[in-house]
Amino acid sequence: MASTVLGISAYYHDSAAALLRDGEIVAAAQEERFTRRKHDARFPEQAIAYCLKEGGVRLTDLESIVFYDKPLVKFERLLETYLAEAPRGYRSFAAAMPVWLKEKLFLKPQLKKELARLGQCGAPALPPLYFAEHHQAHAASAFYPSPFSRAAVLCMDGVGEWATTSVWLGEGHTLTPQWQIDFPHSLGLLYSAFTYYTGFKVNSGEYKLMGLAPYGEPAYVDLILKQLLDLKEDGTFRLNMDYFHYTTGLTMTNAKFNALFGGPPRAPEEKLTQREMNLARSIQAVTEEVVLRLARTIHRELGVDALCLAGGVALNCVANGRLLREGPMREIWIQPAAGDAGGALGAALAFRHQYQGQPRTATGTDRMAGAYLGPRFSASEIKGYLDSVGAVYEFLDDEPLMGSVAEILAREQVVGWFQGRMEFGPRALGARSIIGDPRSEKMQSVMNLKIKYRESFRPFAPSVLSESVSTFFELDRPSPYMLLTASVREEHRLPMTSEQQRLFGIDKLNVKRSSIPAVTHIDYSARIQTVHKETNPRYHRLLQAFQQRTGCPVLVNTSFNVRGEPIVCTPEDAYRCFMRTEMDYLVLENFLLAKSKQPVWEKEDGWKETFELD
């Protein structure tokens, strides 16, 4: 009888579910993709239902269910923090307690109630319910799917129960904690404080801050290190809590923080100034320095040459790229769903290997299957939907489809690309992507303003054939999950004029910097996704067809969504997004649709107002 374990993350942000069968990852997905509610934190009912369907099992067939967090320990941390700060923080305490006393404190019976309803059974018929620790789940999600038999694991996020930074040693099927840094001293929360202060949304806008950083100067680094962060040579740190409000208030920073940096936080949607750009560059530089110092310490203490990363900070691909170039580790592997969603997978893996002691064999390749772990849709399902809305389409076999799409892309047209299993994690990796020609000077502007409806400064990532990555970028290894940045090679760069070199801030945006300007950031970096025939053969074939047509093995790849919405999941989601935007073509598996041939789209009342201004 196969052993099946369901992992769940929920109730904080990015709820998700993941299913293991005999230790192999069968399915994993975030709830937001089904509910169309970005960062949905509710019980992941639809994600669980999908995982069970993909695995061909009922809830009552499972061996066990594992939650990614220990709520009672987290509640203990909240109470200790409030008591230590009393009477400050009463407003925050009063806001938090009703939710805890009604729901989160009694999470086990709440989960059992939701699961029983989903499984249409009584609670006694449910499989046993277990709870992993938050950072244990992160560490398990990083080490167990990695290619390594022995590796150090570094987890960094806002906060779990108490831990904000933790170090582990993974060997075979064991994962042993080494040491940790506890709340309120948190690199993730420090970065989020600057995200908040520069006018972006905490827990979703951190990557915007990272993208803004190259426009600025590191003008505030010394001030941050002098006033906010006591950083030791070994990478450990403490925050000066006099400047922060997240332990006692409803905001991340306080008046003293405002005074230190010369004014109140930027209001969302307010014009970005050089101050915000310099703040972004400064906190990014500090973050990279902390990560580098921690890696050197871990390497020295544990004597290992491989490092696995998870937790929200591990999604900082600029820091990861610098760690790869300058750090002591020979090999790095990053969990593609490094945030809380990946905790669902980690909880299941921790139960399998740590609690049950089941063996794990490292094969030298990762077990995430390219992160293509979500739903797929058949030709009959796609056709049925398209016919129901009167869509006009062609059905093409693979070879002519690839040639047609390559030709369309070469004409600087924007294509929605939907095929195979949906990605697990925050990145679109060629299954639910919007793609374009990287050689186009106008492509970044067109995609940002007419397709994504987002800020003009945001860079786009390149998808590149894995076998060609080193001919365009200074990278000598795979980067399948878009979690490493590297520079465009010198021979593909374009020299800047003396006038261009004198530009500051956002004025740098429109300078053409390389032969692939749409994916070259203003510092000549790119957030790279290598595309592999083994994990995504159809996307690989498209890149080959584009290379044959143009000589370029690179495409612009951005997530198939508009601002404020999750990445599309179903053919209906994809068609609706296609019709709402100025995309030119849509590919749904082997169905090719031209925007110019579609019937008039009746926009739903108020659809634009549903987009969050994040």
Question: Could you please describe the fold and organization of this structure?
Answer:
The chain is of the alpha/beta class and 614 residues long. It has a domain at 379-610: Alpha-Beta Complex (DHBP synthase), CATH 3.90.870. Helices cover 35% and strands 17% of the residues. The protein has 20 helices and 21 strands. The strands form four sheets. A nine-stranded mixed sheet has the order 13-21-20-14-15-19-16-18-17, sandwiched between helices. It has a five-stranded mixed sheet with strand order 3-2-1-4-5. Strand 11 (306-310), helix 12 (317-326) and strand 12 form a beta-alpha-beta unit. Helix 6 (134-143) packs across helix 13 (340-355), helix 11 (274-302) crosses helix 12 (317-326) and helix 15 packs across helix 19. The radius of gyration is 24 Å and the shape is globular. It starts with a strand and ends in a 20-residue tail after the last strand. Mean pLDDT is 91; it is low at 605-614. This is Carbamoyltransferase. Residues 406-595 form the Carbamoyltransferase C-terminal domain. Residues 5-349 form the Carbamoyltransferase domain. Pfam families: Carbam_trans_C, Carbam_trans_N. Keywords: Transferase.
